[in-house]
Amino acid sequence: MRNASIYLLIVLLALSCIAIPTNALSDTGIVTDSQTAAITMTDSGFHVEETITLTNHGSENVTLLRFWIQSDVSSDVSIVATKSGTALQPVVNGNIRECNLSATHLVLTPLASMEVTVSYTLPTSTARFTKDFLYNTSQLIVTYNTQPLLSGKDFVKSTPPYEISIQLYNPSEAPLGLSTLLIVFLIVVIVLTLLLLVFRRQRRRKRVGTVDTPQTLVTKKDLLLELLKDLEKRYRAKDISDETYTKLKEEYKAQAVDTMRRLEDVKKPES
After folding, report:
1. Strand 137-144 to 30-42 pairing
2. pLDDT tens readout for residues 59-96
3. Distances (CA, A) of 101 to 23, 30, 42, 80, 133
4. What is the mean pLDDT of the chain?
5. Which pLDDT score is estimated for 210?
6. What is the per-residue pLDDT for 8?
7. Do 66 and 134 form a contact (C-beta atoms < 8 A)?
8. Which residue in 10, 160, 211, 240 is deepest, having the highest Cβ count within 10 Å?
9. Residues with Cβ < 8 Å from 113, sequence gap 6 or more?
10. Maximum CA extent, the chain
């Protein structure tokens, strides 16, 4: 009788394992609608709080979410589903935190969205805030002590990942009366970094026989024109020297003219 009970228990366990579906973890179809990174200087370092809205544009349920964190993080990374307040338990894989939604009884069905808050601290020695794009991202906003550092749209994931790197500074070390100039300088660094990334991507495309897309060229043109406007404002305010103004203006104008010329070439109908 005892043996029969053991056999029956084994059979029931086997049947239960067969009955429970085992879905492979997948984040196929995920798109980042918006991502805001608010950076605040504290006594313990740079506190970063990212608010990310993700949408499942695929046809299958999403059971996995991934988040990229730079390697010099000095604290535990908190990842919370904002609406439910559920803490996601990440598995660390290099710079990537992988969160199994099934483990917390969450799932992203097709066309459903989820807002996630990611919090962590970077050491005071951190010179740059870096972010890679694991998903196509419609909008990215980065602020430092409530001041805007970067606002961009339509970032495309790639292999290797498309990365931005933003210079940080400690306000306590900034000379009095130069905070505005420092902010402008940071904006220039950000724009130049983005332009460098665009140029690198363009060179990669040319190596494999591809061409610039109108969207990429329009984005680059808008960035250059905005940079020229900021440069004019700083020059009129006498925040930069004549030599620096002339050198930067000639460089940005040359790049803008070249970009518009290539944009016209791309838009020309093939004969």
Report:
1. parallel
2. 999 999 999 999 999 889 999 999 999 999 999 999 99
3. 11, 13, 32, 11, 20
4. 82
5. 44
6. 62
7. yes
8. 240
9. 33, 53, 54, 55, 56
10. 98
What lies within 8 Å, CB to CB, of 156 at 6+ separation is 133, 136, 162
For domain 23-169, give the fold. Answer: Immunoglobulin-like (2.60.40)
Band of pLDDT at residue 265, cut at 50, 70 and 90: confident
Cα–Cα distance for residue pair 267/213, rounded to 1 Å: 9
In Å, what is the CA distance from 144 to each residue of 49, 118, 167, 169? 11, 16, 11, 9
Cβ atoms within 10 Å of 215's Cβ, excluding its own: 10
Q: How far is residue 58's CA from residue 30's CA, in Å, rounded to a whole number? A: 7
Per domain, the residue ranges of the chain are 23-169, 174-271
How many whole angstroms from its chain centre is CA 47? 17
- Residues 131-169: pLDDT tens digits? 888 999 999 999 998 888 888 888 888 666 557 888 876
CA proximity to 36, closest of 55, 49, 19: 49
Could you say which DSSP state residue 269 is in? P
Q: What's residue 107's pLDDT? A: 93
φ and ψ at 248, to 5 degrees?
-70, -40
Q: Say how far apart CA 58 and CA 63 lie, in whole Å.
A: 12
Kindly report the pTM of this predicted structure.
Answer: 0.55
